[in-house]
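batch job 7 of whatever, protein = Single-stranded DNA-binding protein
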Amino acid sequence: MYFNKVILLGRLVKDPEIKFTPKGLAVSKFTLALSKKNKRDLILKTENYTSNSKLNDEVLYIDVNSFGERAEIISKFFKKGILVLIEGRLKLNRWTTVNGELRTNHSIILENFQFLPNKINNSKKLSDNTDEVTSDEPY
């Protein structure tokens, strides 16, 4: 038995892209930025009380794909900088370059999401701050 579940909290790097398949299925893609402060630098800054100490962030950029009704909702409400909590599953993508090199990367297939309080987007209120959609996915 295998378990493939991912839960991430992050901000959108840019507005989502939406496309439609020939059969009319909406496909949305966006990138989520996740950051983590370097604890060592945080401790040094606190102990030395220096304003010159800069916190180093470890930033991850994660590609997220959604389909159907979820993709349409995402394209309507998700904007660059918005804070979201996503739930999905990890997918391995493989392809061969024009030079014949095998390449891989991972992405998330979105299953559920939740809007969170957002300093950048606080002037635009959403009706209930949560949107959860369940539908069949092509994968």
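notes: The radius of gyration is 18 Å.
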